Amino acid sequence: MKTVVIHGPRDLRIEERGVGSLAAGEVLVDVRSGGICGSDMHYYNHGGFGAVRLKEPMILGHEVSGVIAAVAADVTKVKVGDKVAVNPSRPCRRCQYCLEGLPNQCLNMRFYGSAMPMPHIQGAFRQQLVCDAIQCEATTSDIDFGLLAMAEPFSVGLHATSRLGPLVGRRALITGCGPIGTLAIAALRHHGIAEIVATDVIGGPLARARKIGADRTINVAETPDELAAYSANKGYFDVLIECSGNEKALRSALDCLRPRATIVQLGLGGDISIPVNVLVAKELSMIGSFRFHPEFALAVKLISERRVDLSPVLTATYPLSDAVAAFDAANDRQHNMKVQIAF
User: Fold this and answer.
1) What is the CATH number of domain 2-150+310-342?
2) Cβ partners under 8 Å of residue 139, min gap 6
C-alpha cells in the first residue's frame, strides 16, 4: 500500500509499506479520507515542535475515515462494509489514569503520527490501516467521508466545551479561528450558547467562523478597538476558549471577561505569562483542555445525523499522489482551513 511519510522538514514522500496482518480484536480499514492537522504541519514545516523531533521516518496523519475491509474472527463491534471514523487515540486502559476514567491522560498513550516516543508511533495516512475494532465508530449515514474524517478535531472542540459546564444562555469569546477554534464554535452552538464572538488576525478564517455559527467576528490585527469595547463594566463574556496559543490574544481577552468567567486554554504555543492580578480581581477560572475520549462517538453521531454542518471547515481535497501539494495548500491560512487527502 501507499503511505505518506515524513523524513524531515519539507521532505514528504509517498512510500510503499506493508499492510500487516490482523490479530485478535483488530480490523482492516480501507482509508478514504484523511485530514491534515496542525501537528502534521509542524512535522512538515519544522521536523517537529518544541522538544519533539523526528528521529526516524514516520507516517503522518490521525484524522481518518474509511470502510471496514476485514475483521478478526472475534470482532463483533463492526462488520465488513461498515463506514467508520477511526479514533486515533489508543490509551493503554491499564494505567492509573485510564482506570480513573481519564484515558486522555494515559501514561502509555499511543496516538497516531507521534514522534514523542522512540520508535515513533506511525500514523494513519495510508491506503489501509490495521487498528483495534474498538477504535472504529460506524455509521449507516450517507455522510461524506471527508466530513466523517473531521470527527477527531470536532471531538477536541466538544471536549473543550465539556470543561465549561452548562452553556445555555451564556456568551462566549473564541480567540483563534483555525480548524480547532472554528469547530469549537460548532460545539458551542450544539450546547446552547447564546452568543459567540470570534477573533483572528486573518480574514479568511473569520469568514468561515461566521458560516459555522459565530454571531460576530473581529479582525484584531485591523480593528483591535472592536474587541476592546467589550471590556466596559468589567467585561462582557462568560466564557473564553483560547485557541491560538498566543499570549497577546489571551491577555487582550482577559479584559473582556466578566467577573467569575471561565477560560479554557485549548491552543498550544509554548510558555506564556498572564497578569495574575486580573485573574484574582475578577475571580476568573482558568482550565486546560487536552485531546478527548468519550466525545469521539458523540462527534460521529452529530456529524452523521447532520445535526452539525462542518462543511465550511473543509476547504480543499487532494489525491494521495498530490500529498505534497496538499501540505503546501494547508500552509495558506487565508484560503484554506481543513485540507484533506483522498486515499
Assistant:
1) 3.90.180.10
2) 83, 84, 85, 148, 300, 301, 304
Coil vs helix vs strand at 24: coil
Entry pTM: 0.95
Q: How far is CA 161 from CA 98, 174, 181, 187, 234, in A?
A: 21, 12, 11, 7, 24
Domain residue ranges in the chain:
2-150+310-342, 156-288
What is the enclosing helix (H) or strand (E) of 187? helix 179-190
Element holding 3 (H helix, E strand) = strand 2-8
**Helix axes 295-304 and 151-162, enclosed angle (nearest 10):** 120
pLDDT tens-place string over residues 178-213: 999 999 999 999 999 999 999 999 999 999 999 999
Backbone angles phi, psi at 75, to 5 degrees: -85, 130
Enter the CATH code of domain 156-288. Answer: 3.40.50.720
